[in-house]
Automatic annotation (TrEMBL):
GO terms for molecular function: 4 iron, 4 sulfur cluster binding; carbon-nitrogen lyase activity; magnesium ion binding; S-adenosyl-L-methionine binding. This is 7-carboxy-7-deazaguanine synthase. Belongs to the radical SAM superfamily. 7-carboxy-7-deazaguanine synthase family. Homodimer.
Length: 216
């Protein structure tokens, strides 16, 4: 059994292995171990679940071949790995969004794509992140896009530069500015360009498309 906040059809709003703008099934899992300052899904933080469903039930409700698992934090429930494996067995393409604070069990491998946050200063949750070395060790064997949600404060920009410098060449990175329309992307581009232009090569800038078009 697994705690679910909601299952719905929408567009994949951000950069990931499911192309941004693709119609897909979104499974929002209930419960999160973090409390980011700018969380936009506060209703999914509590462990009090609206629905407790069997894995079979969840999979039966996934109508689309592309399934995006998000939260809350999917990895606080150990059943999530079983759900991922079963969705893949049923021929879905699966992408999981996770907050970066929880590592996968050693030896667990999956064909799904992982969009893994590394939380910066503006989240207020940076002290809950693993060290750069632990993060690399956790995720290097998996299909990962590292997502950095940032504002354009001096400390967040410095954080982006530190992450890119330490993990350069190991992952792809999605930069997701806090303003939904991406008006601050140019500030971020200019900051990185001044420090080390080649770091821009690994970046994908992402705006939250679902918010721009008014979908969940
Ligand atoms: S990890 Fe995600 S769901 Fe949890 S508090 Fe942060 S933004 Fe909200």
């Amino acid at each position: 059994m697994i705690a679910i906040h909601s299952i719905f059809e929408s567009i994949s709003g951000e950069v990931g292995f499911i192309s941004q703008g693709s119609w897909c099934t979104i499974v929002r899992l209930q419960g999160c171990n973090l409390r980011c300052r700018w969380c936009d899904t506060k209703e999914s933080q509590s462990i009090e679940a609206k629905y407790i469903l069997s894995i079979d039930d969840v999979v039966a409700r996934c109508k689309n071949s592309k399934v995006l698992l998000t939260g809350g934090e999917p990895l606080i429930q150990k059943e999530t790995l079983e759900l991922i494996d079963y969705l893949i067995e049923k021929k879905h393409f699966v992408q999981v969004e996770t907050n970066g604070s929880i590592s996968l069990p050693k030896g667990y491998l999956s064909d799904c794509g992982w969009v893994v946050d590394y939380k910066g200063p503006s989240s207020g949750m940076m002290d809950r992140m693993p060290s750069f070395e632990e993060f690399i060790d956790n995720w290097i064997e998996h299909r990962v896009i590292v997502k950095l949600v940032v504002d354009n404060s001096e400390e967040d920009l410095e954080f982006v530069f530190q992450v890119l410098s330490k993990m350069h060449g190991l992952f792809q990175f999605a930069i997701s500015p806090l303003d939904a329309k991406g008006e601050k992307i140019l500030d971020i581009v200019n900051f990185i360009r001044e420090r080390d232009e080649k770091l821009l090569d690994e970046l994908i800038f992402s705006i939250q498309m679902h918010k721009v078009v008014g979908l969940l």
